[in-house]
Every structure is written in structure tokens, then in C-alpha cells.
Design brief:
By secondary structure, the chain is of the alpha/beta class. The protein folds into six domains: about 40-160 and about 460-555, HUPs (Rossmann fold); about 165-175 and about 355-370 and about 380-455, no CATH class; about 190-350, Isoleucyl-tRNA Synthetase, domain 2 (Alpha-Beta Complex), CATH 3.90.740.10; about 575-725, Isoleucyl-tRNA Synthetase, Domain 1 (Orthogonal Bundle), CATH 1.10.730; about 730-815, hypothetical protein PF0899 fold, CATH 3.30.2320; about 820-880. It has 28 helices and 31 strands. The strands form eleven sheets. It has a four-stranded antiparallel β-sheet with strand order 6-5-14-16. Strands 10-11-9-12 form a four-stranded mixed β-sheet, covered by helices on one side. Strands 29-28-31-30 form a four-stranded mixed β-sheet, with helices on one face.
């Protein structure tokens, strides 16, 4: 069999994946085996995947491959999210480049453009996941806008509305002026920016004086409906019950008192703008104040703002300051640092805006979800995220579930009249007509007199029921699949969507099925770039994963990124971690080539002593590593389990085991030794497979001829066995001896071909490995002596408390000079010199000590330097003589 000299991941990965797909290894149906289900956090269809997705999906694939080999019936549900805001923004931008707008072409045609976009990007994402090696059940691909999931969303909305959990109301919400939609609190991120605090004089009605208001947003004064001060602030007690006049518009507003006001901020007087601040709205509700909305959907000012109508909010700020100055009502301007809210989706500054929206009551729903995490029914890895989860749940507010978009699940509400209550909630237009006729008492109502709500539901409203809806558990709650696969096992996700998704799925699971949606949640760290920014599609700061896979191979990318994947810890991505993975792939491939290059002596049944010892040692070492590997694996310490596996392969298997059993050049290997080598190589490949599936499957298939049922992907995971710790300790001692002898050869330039004689005094536990020490250290003899040999021509070294001796030719003994001891002396003097100079560079020490001591220290510095120079020159001469 011709084995390529170099491992070529490109050709191997494509062929192997095609084979797995053809053989239906990823396919799952309910059966007798215990299920192991994972739901993929569906990536947005807004472009290609990034490194964060690669990390997340590699971990899921590791878990699913491990479960498959452990004998479970694994089911990994792949999917994609329609991502309402982000996708609509992409398509709007695309249309704009063509001179079109969504309003111009209309809803129906716009949605056809979005569908075209989504189909294209769904395929891109699926292909990327396949290139990574993801063993998802591709027969179960879910898209949050497909018919089954859409029907589930509608059913859930109707059910919650009928139970009184969904309501419609005016609330101050976060408004994204670019996307022209409301967004949730969790979709707003804050940055501290330098701003200004403007002090504006509001004249008091009927008086000659005024009250000064400090504000960062003078452009909102058109929406002011009151001025407020703290009841205990004596500075403004005389203003109680009076009215003030807003500059420019000259509208009168009442002066009220409320303990919400912070007397130490600004002037201590606050202007109340209820339509554009959630706290001001609460005050307005308490004091029955007027509410004036001054913003259009794109954050330009509306008709209530006089000559500023149609102008952008930030342009208005510049101009209104000039006008206030000219009216001599601008008292002063201070510099002021403030936190500004930005839309996570469009990066534009968010406005707080009064809006009529649909809300879902969350407080009652959160109670069982909190209890499930508290009592350990659902476990978080790492557990530190429980605290954050509880804090958010404790402060949970009603969920604003409506979005002013066209792409998404359209809200199943139908309006038929002009009153605010003239609507019905129904699955479709036909049912809506029936319900509307009954509610309106108008049997003659026609379809064309009914209009559906134009808003769509928040994207997360479809995602929060995914563990149930993907198995059709909402529409058919007792079907075979939901009963078998639910609850799922592990959820692997980023901590940044703990509130968006994880907490809401837990709430939905307990509300609709009285059962948790998953058993464990593993939070990956956030992958960051060299500027410490989160790697994301919106920032476009991720290397293309496909390019990395093309360059290094999927296994190399997977391994490199997993070595950095500590639970819940952020890390910086650097491309050279993929190089580490590629080097490891090459190491394993070279080990495979070496083994396959050996000629097998079929009739030779001998077990050379060194090989026999090596096989026994590696068996014990393997089961020791397996125990630690699985312990780490079950604690989601994927980086640690991979590192111990890395060391097992690179050090134990390649550097020691193969070197020991390797036949002498020109000779063959006995059949039993070769069979054992293959056996343990295969066991190693089994441990490696979840991390590096392509390479391990390729080597597995080439080691021996196999049937379809013997593919590595469906092979059995090694069972744990007891091991002898003493064997491992004694072998480690033998390794230390070999390493020390090799180090001496290297330092003293003794050729490897030159055999040495090794003496030891104390009977050590490594004695049983003499055959291995002889071979790998290239010794002619190992001799046990009762007393120390004469020092001439002997090189001594310690391992722990045991002393060993190497017999050297006169050429190498070099008049009994121990070169290593010289090196140790040089190092000692360097350390001493460092301490002396540390004292002499300390001004406090130099000034405080007597002059004679200072002179002694300087002389000691000079003497130490001379000793170092002398020893280094001596060492150079001795090394030259050895050459």
C-alpha cells in the first residue's frame, strides 16, 4: 500500500465526510438506545460563520461523537435563525445600492428578496459546518421560518394571549432609528463618551426670575411636560405649585416634586420628558402629566418641534444651542462623561421612545426557571454564571416581543375597527373573520375589512421554544419524537446570550411542558481579536474559517481552537494555534507511516524483553490517561482532556513506545509486537476521534481492512480498566535516566553510536526496565556496584537521592572535569551577581550602609564577574577539546 509522505487534509476530509454521509452515520430515529440530544444554537443567516461559531460547533461535535462511541443514540439538530433585524438591514442595504427601498417595492416583493438572500446564505452556512466535520443529522435541518416552526410560534402566541400573558400597551421602549424598530434591553450596549451638560433657564410664569435645568439633550425640550425637584431640596421650595415656560416654544409646564430626583446632579432640577425616558414616564403616570412624542421613526424631529421639524436629532442639538444662546437662556456648558446606548444590530445610537407594542409577562413564568437552576436540576458550566442568571431573573421585566419589521413571524392579530380593542387573535385570516364577526356582533363583516398586524415577533420568540418546536412538541405535544428526545442533554452556547435565549428557553420548557429543556449548559468563552473586541459578523473582524480549513485542515483548526477553550473564559484568537494543530496532525501521520513501514515477520512469535515491557507499560499508561481524560471531559474541561491526550500521543506513544519497539534497521518486527502496536494505536485513535475526526478515521481505515460496521465513528469507546501505578512510576524513573544520559551525550558531544557503560549502586524500581534503558540510551552494559567507582573517567549525576555513574573514555572524561558542574557554578555566580547589583542599584541601600561595606560589595561584584569570565572561557576550551 502506497502511503503519502505528507498528510493531505484537503483530499482526505472531503472523501471521509462523503463516506460518513453516504453511510448515514449521522442519522437518528427514536429507538431502544438511550438518546443523547443536542440542539445547535442556530447561527444567523446574515453571512458566513466566524471563529466563535467554529468554537461552539466543534465542542458540540466533540460531545456528539463521544456519545455515539459510548453507545447512545445521538441526535444533533442543526439549524439557522432568520435574524429579523440583521437580515432585513442587509437586504435593505442591498436594495439601496440598486436604487430601491422596501417601501417602494412593497411587503410581498421585499420578502421575496429576503427569501432569496436566506436560501443563499443557508447553503453557505451548511457547507461551512460540513467542512468543519460537524456530524449533525442533516435530515433534521431547522430554519426558524419553516412551516413547522412558524406554526409553533403562532400556536404559542395564541395560547399565551388566551391565558392573559400577552398584552398590548404604550411603553417607553428602546428604538433603533436605523432599523426603525424597537429592540430589547439586552440588544443595547453602552459606551462611555465625552459629552456636554447644558444649563438652560426656564422662566417662571408670573415672576421675573427663572429656574435652571441641566440636561445632556436640549433637543428633547419640545417633549418636556414638567419640571421636578426633590421634596427635601429647600433651594426650590418656593417653586412648589408654580409653572415654568419652555424656551423657544413658550409652552407652560407644571413644577412638581418627587424623590426620584438627585439634588446633587446638575442644578438639582430635572426636566420631565415622558415619551423619551422610562423613568420620566413613571413620574408622568404618577402625576398624570401630558406625554408628547417628538421623534419620527428615523430619529428626525416631528411636527411638534416647530422650525426643527424634519431635522436629525444631533443636528438639532447643535442649532438649538445657538438659538438658546441668542435668547440668552443658556446659562453655561460643562464637560460631562456619559454612557450612551447603541443598538447591537445596527450600531446606531438608541432612542427611548413611547410606542404601542406587544408585551409578554415574565415574572410568574420565571419562578420555576429560577428554582431549576438553584436546585441543580439544570447545571451551568462554569457555575459562576448562575449568579448572573439569578440577578437578571430577579429584575426581569415584561418582554417587548413586537418588532416593526417585515421579515419574521407576523403577529397573529387581526384588526377590524377603529377602537383600540377592535382586534382578535387567530391562526389565520379565515379564523380571524369568524372571531371578529362574533366579537363585533357584525355578521356581515368581510375579509377585506380585516387587516393583520404589520409588526413581526422578536426573533428570540421563535428561538425560545426551539427545544420543543424542532420535535413538533408544540403542535403535537405527545408525539413519539418529543417524548423520546426531550429534554435535550447539553446546550453549548456563549454567555452573551444567557438572557436572550438560555433563560427564556428554560422558562418556556417549564411553562409549556412542565419540564426542563436541557440538563446542562456549557458556556464557551468569547473569542476576541487582537484589539480585545468580541469577534462577530457585525464587526467583520473574524478570519474566514473556510480559509483556515483550506490552509491547515479542519482537524488542525479544531485542535488549535480547543486547546484554548477553557469553560467560560474569553481568549484571543491567533492563527498560529492552527499551526500547532497541523504539526500535531503531521506527527500522528508520521507515526502511522513508521508503523506501516515495518516488515512483519509472520513466523516470529518472539517478544523481545524491551518490547514486552513497553507494551505492558503503555497499557497501564493508556488506562491511567483514560481515567483522567474522562474526568476532565465530564467536567467540560475540553482543553485539559485534549492536552493530556496530546502528551499521550506525542510523548508516550511516539517518543517512547514506538522508539522502544522499533525494530533494528534492516530487520523485521515480530507479529505479536506488531499486533499489540496496532491495538494500542487504535485505542489512541478512539480517544482522538471526537477532536480530530478526519485524520483519526483515515488512519483507522488504513491500519487494517475493515467492513462498514467497523468505521471509527461508530466504534466502541474504550472501557475503563484498573492500572498499576507502580509500573508507571518505575517507567518514569527509567525515562529520566535515559533523558539524563542523552543530555550528557549532547553536552559532552559524545556520538550516539558510542556505547557507554552505566553503573548504579541503589537497587531502584527502574531495574525491570534495564532492557529499555540499554536500547534507548545506547549502553553496552548496566552494572550494579556496591561502592562508588573511582572518580577518574566517571561522570556522576543524581535523580532524586539516587546517584548514577557513566563510564567515559579518557577523551570525554577530560581529566575528571565535570562539565555540568562547571555550568552549575557559572549559573550560581550569575545569580550572586544579580543580587549584588540589585543592592548597588538601590539608592536607599547605598546611602544607608557604611562606606567600607559599600566598597566590599563593589569588590564582590568585580570578583564575581572575573570568576564568571574565567569559568566560561574554561568551559569553551574543554568543549573544544572534546570535539
Amino acid at each position: 500500500m502506497d502511503i503519502p509522505i505528507k498528510y493531505d487534509p484537503k483530499s482526505v476530509e472531503k472523501r471521509i465526510y462523503h463516506h460518513w454521509m453516504n453511510e448515514n452515520y449521522f442519522f437518528s430515529l427514536p429507538g431502544k438506545k438511550a438518546p443523547y440530544t443536542i440542539l445547535m444554537p442556530p447561527p444567523n443567516i446574515t453571512g458566513v460563520l466566524h471563529i466563535g461559531h467554529i468554537l461552539n460547533n466543534t465542542i458540540q461535535d466533540i460531545l456528539i461523537r463521544y456519545a455515539r462511541m459510548k453507545g447512545y443514540n445521538p441526535c444533533w439538530i442543526p439549524g439557522m435563525d432568520h435574524a429579523s433585524i440583521a437580515t432585513e438591514a442587509k437586504v435593505v442595504h442591498q436594495l439601496k445600492e440598486k436604487g430601491l427601498s422596501k417601501i417602494l417595492i412593497g411587503r410581498e416583493k421585499f420578502l421575496s428578496h429576503v427569501s432569496e438572500w436566506s436560501e443563499k446564505h443557508k447553503n453557505i452556512i451548511l457547507n461551512q459546518l460540513k467542512k468543519l466535520g460537524c456530524s449533525c443529522d442533516w435530515n433534521r435541518v431547522q430554519f426558524t421560518m419553516n412551516n413547522k416552526l412558524s406554526k409553533s410560534v403562532t400556536e404559542v402566541f395564541i395560547d399565551l394571549y388566551n391565558q392573559g400573558y400577552i398584552y398590548r400597551g404604550y411603553r417607553v421602549v428602546n428604538w433603533d432609528p436605523e432599523a426603525k424598530t424597537t429592540i430589547s434591553d439586552e440588544e443595547v450596549f453602552y459606551r462611555e463618551q465625552k459629552g456636554k451638560l447644558f444649563y438652560i433657564k426656564y422662566p417662571i410664569e408670573g415672576e421675573k426670575y427663572f429656574v435652571t435645568i441641566a440636561t445632556t439633550r436640549p433637543e428633547t425640550m419640545f417633549g418636556d411636560t414638567a419640571i421636578c425637584f426633590h421634596p427635601d431640596d429647600n433651594r426650590y421650595f418656593h417653586l412648589k405649585g408654580k409653572y415654568a415656560r419652555i424656551p423657544i416654544i413658550n409652552r407652560l409646564i407644571p413644577i412638581i416634586q418627587d424623590s426620584y430626583v438627585d439634588p446633587s446632579f446638575g442644578s438639582g432640577c430635572l426636566k420631565i420628558t415622558p415619551a423619551h425616558d422610562i423613568n420620566d414616564k413613571a413620574i408622568a403616570d404618577t402625576y398624570h402629566l401630558e406625554i408628547i412624542d417628538i421623534f419620527n421613526e428615523d430619529a428626525t424631529l416631528n411636527e411638534k418641534c416647530l422650525h426643527y421639524q424634519g431635522m436629525d436629532r444631533f443636528e438639532v442639538r447643535k442649532n438649538i444651542i445657538k438659538e438658546l444662546s441668542s435668547l440668552e437662556v443658556l446659562s453655561k456648558v460643562d464637560n460631562f462623561n456619559q454612557k450612551i446606548g447603541f443598538s447591537e444590530r445596527t450600531k446606531t445610537v438608541v432612542e427611548q421612545k413611547l410606542s404601542l407594542q406587544w408585551f409578554l409577562k415574565m415574572k410568574k413564568m420565571s419562578i420555576p426557571a429560577v428554582e431549576a437552576v438553584k436546585n441543580g436540576e439544570i447545571q451551568f458550566y462554569p457555575s459562576k454564571f448562575k449568579k448572573i442568571y439569578f440577578q437578571w431573573m430577579d429584575k426581569i421585566r415584561d418582554w417587548n416581543i413586537s418588532r416593526q419589521l417585515w421579515w419574521g413571524h407576523r403577529i397573529p392579530v387581526y384588526y377590524y375597527g377603529n377602537s383600540k380593542n377592535d382586534f382578535v387573535v387567530a391562526e389565520n385570516l379565515e379564523q380571524a373573520l369568524i372571531k371578529a364577526k362574533i366579537k363585533s356582533h357584525d355578521p356581515h363583516l368581510k375579509e377585506n375589512e380585516i387587516r393583520q398586524e404589520s409588526d413581526v415577533l422578536d426573533t428570540w420568540f421563535s428561538s425560545w421554544i426551539l427545544p420543543m418546536s424542532v420535535f413538533d412538541g408544540i403542535i403535537h405535544p405527545h408525539n413519539r419524537e418529543i417524548s423520546y428526545y426531550y429534554p435535550t442533554e447539553d446546550l453549548v452556547t456563549g454567555s452573551d446570550i444567557l438572557f436572550f435565549w438560555v433563560s427564556r428557553m428554560i422558562m418556556a420548557g417549564f411553562f409549556f411542558r412542565k419540564q426542563k429543556p436541557f440538563k446542562r449548559v456549557f458556556f464557551t468563552g468569547i473569542v476576541r481579536d487582537d484589539k480585545n473586541q468580541k469577534i462577530s459578523k457585525s464587526l467583520n473582524n473574524s478570519p474566514n474559517p473556510v480559509d483556515l480549513i483550506e490552509k491547515y485542515g479542519a482537524d488542525a483548526v479544531r485542535m488549535g481552537i480547543m486547546l484554548r477553550a477553557s469553560a467560560g473564559k474569553d481568549f484571543h484568537f491567533e492563527e498560529n494555534i492552527c499551526l500547532l494543530g497541523r504539526n500535531f496532525s503531521n506527527k500522528i501521520w508520521n507515526a502511522f507511516r513508521l508503523i506501516k513501514s515495518w516488515k512483519i515477520e509472520e513466523k516470529n512469535k518472539d517478544f523481545p524483553e524491551a518490547s514486552k515491557k513497553a507494551i505492558r507499560w503503555f497499557e497501564n499508561r493508556f488506562y491511567h490517561v483514560l481515567e483522567i481524560f474522562e474526568k476532565n471531559f465530564h467536567q467540560y474541561k475540553f482543553d485539559e482532556s485534549l492536552m493530556i491526550l496530546y502528551k499521550l500521543i506525542w510523548n508516550d506513544f511516539c517518543s517512547w513506545f514506538l522508539e522502544i519497539i522499533k525494530p533494528v534497521f534492516g530487520k523485521g518486527i515480530s507479529k505479536p509486537v506488531y499486533s499489540n502496536t496496532i491495538k494500542w494505536f487504535e485505542n489512541v485513535l478512539k480517544l482522538l476521534h471526537p477532536y480530530m475526526p478526519f485524520l483519526s478515521e483515515e488512519i483507522w481505515s488504513l491500519l487494517q481492512k475493515r467492513t462498514r460496521e467497523e468505521a471509527l465513528i461508530i466504534s466502541s469507546w474504550p472501557k475503563k480498566k484498573s492500572y498499576n501505578q507502580k509500573i508507571l512510576v518505575s517507567f518514569e524513573k527509567a525515562v529520566q535516566i535515559i533523558s539524563q544520559i542523552r543530555s550528557i551525550r549532547n553536552k559532552m558531544n559524545i556520538p550516539y553510536k558510542k556505547s557507554l557503560v552505566f553503573f548504579y549502586m541503589k537497587e531502584g524500581i527502574e531495574k525491570e526496565y534495564h532492557s529499555i534503558i540499554l536500547k534507548l540510551a545506547n549502553l553496552s552494559q548496566i552494572i550494579h556496584v556496591l561502592k562508588k567507582p573511582k572518580k577518574e573517567q566517571f561522570f556522576s549525576f543524581f535523580l532524586g537521592t539516587d546517584k548514577y555513574f557513566l563510564y567515559l573514555d579518557r577523551k570525554y572524561s577530560s581529566n575528571k572535569i565535570d562539565l555540568i558542574q562547571i555550568e552549575k557554578k557559572i549559573q550560581y555566580f550569575y545569580n550572586l551577581l544579580s543580587m549584588i547589583r540589585k543592592n548597588l542599584s538601590n539608592n536607599k541601600y547605598v546611602k544607608s550602609v557604611p562606606k567600607e561595606i559599600l566598597l566590599k560589595e563593589k569588590k564582590k561584584e568585580s570578583d564575581t564577574l572575573k570568576k564568571i569570565v574565567h569559568l566560561e572561557e574554561f568551559l569553551k576550551r574543554k568543549n573544544k577539546n572534546l570535539d
